[in-house]
Amino acid sequence: MALKDIKNKIASTNRTHKVTRAMEAVSAVKMRNTQQAAFKGRPYARAALSILARLSGSADLKKHPLTQVRPVKKTALVVMTSDKGLAGGLNSGVIKAAQREIGEKKKEEVVIFAYGRKGEEYFSRRGYTIAKAIENKRDDIPLSVMEELSRELSAGFLAGDYDEVKAAYSNFKSTFEQIPTLRPLLPLSVEAVAELVKDIQPIKGKWAEQAPIESPSAYEVEPSGEEVLGVLIPKLVAVSLYHMLLEGKASEHSARMVAMKNASDKSKEVAHNFTRLYNKIRQAAITREVSEIVSGREALAS
Amino acid sequence: MSKTFHLTIARVGENLFDGEAVSVELPGKDGAFTVLADHEAFVTPLKAGEAVVKVAEGKSERISIQEGGIAEVSKNQTTVLL
C-alpha cells in the first residue's frame, strides 16, 4: 500500500470516529431523558393497578368486554421498534420475539400494528397485513397518540377482528441490557398489568427502589363497578402501551449509545494500527534512501 | 389545626399534586363531592371540571381536570388519576 493511501485511510477513520463519538454523546443525553420519562410514569401505573387489584375480585371485572377470553383465531401484534438503525441488536431482537410469537400461524391469522419503521419494513416485506404503521420519530410522544392506538385496538378486539392483542417491545433493564419482550395486552388481566409494572423498574441504579403495592381493602364503588371499570380499563390499556413505548425509547437510546461507543473504540484502534503501519513504511523508505546515498558516496570515494 | 390526609393527583408522566391536604373538592360523575380526612373508602369516576385542593386554612390550589378520571379514596390516602 502506498503511503498516500494509508494517510487517506487514517483521515477517514478519524472522521468516522468523530461522527460515532458525536452520536454516542447525543444518545447518552437522549437516554437519560427517556429513562427519566419512563420512570416518572411509575406512580401512576402503580395507582391504577392497585385500584384494579382491589376490583379484581368483583364479578364486574370478569364481565367487562375487554377482559373476555375467547378462543384465538386471529392475533393482533403490536411491534415497537425504532425508526432508525445503528442501535445494535435492538430491533432484530424485538422482531425475533414477534416472529417467535407468530410461529406456525398463517399470515392471514396475524395483523401487525407497526410502531416504528424497522418493524413495518420487516413485516410488510414478508407479506403480512399491516393494519397500521406509525412513525416512531419523536421522543416526547404525547399520551394521546397511545390513547388513539389503544382505542383502535380495543375497538378491533370488541368487533372481533382479532381475539387477542400482544405487544413486542424492548424492555429496558439497564444501559447495557435490554430484553426483547412480548406481553399480552388484550384481553386485559390483572396479572399481565402487574407484570408490566414490575418490569418498569430497572435492576439497579437510581430508579431501582421498590415500593410495595398496598394490599387490597374492601371499599364502596360508586355508582357501580361497571362504570368505574369502564373508565379505568381503557386507561390501563393506553398506559400499558405508553409504558412499553417509553421502555422501547429508553432501550433504543441506550443500545445506540453502546453501539456507538463500540464503534468509536474500534475506530480509534483502527486509526492507531494504520498510524503504526504508516510510520513503519515511512521509516523503511527513509532508511532505504539513506543507505542508497551512503553506498553512492562510498562508490564515488573509492 | 384540622386533620390532613395524603393526596395524590397524577397524570401519566407527571404528578400534579402530591402531599398533605385538608380537603379536596372533586367533580364526580354524579355530582361534586368533597373528601376530608378519614373519609370512607370508595372509588368513583370523575368528569371534566376542576379539583380544589385545600392545603391549609385559607390556602387552596386549583387543578383543572380536562377529560375526567378516577378518584380512589381509602383511609387517609386519596388518589386521583386523570
Description:
Chain A has 302 residues and is an alpha/beta fold. Chain A has two domains: 62 residues, Helix Hairpins, CATH 1.10.287; 216 residues, 3-Layer(aba) Sandwich (Pyruvate Kinase, Chain: A, domain 1), CATH 3.40.1380.10. In chain A, 61% of the residues lie in helices and 14% in strands. Chain A has eight helices and six strands; from the N terminus they run αααβαβαβαββαβα. In chain A, helix 4 links the parallel strand 1 and strand 2. The longest helix of chain A is centred in the last third of the chain and has 77 residues. The two termini of chain A are 37 Å apart. About 2% of the residues of chain A have low confidence. With 82 residues, chain B is mainly beta. Chain B has one domain: Sandwich (ATP Synthase, domain 1), CATH 2.60.15. Helix content of chain B is 0%, strand content 71%. Chain B contains no helices and nine strands. In chain B, strand 8 and strand 9 form a beta hairpin. Chain B is globular and about 30 Å long. The mean pLDDT of chain B is 81. Strand 6 of chain A pairs parallel with strand 5 of chain B.
Key features of this structure:
heterodimer, A: about 300 residues, alpha/beta, Helix Hairpins, Pyruvate Kinase, Chain: A, domain 1, 5-stranded mixed sheet, 8 helices, about 15% strand, B: about 80 residues, mainly beta, ATP Synthase, domain 1, 4-stranded antiparallel sheet, 9 strands, about 0% helix, about 70% strand
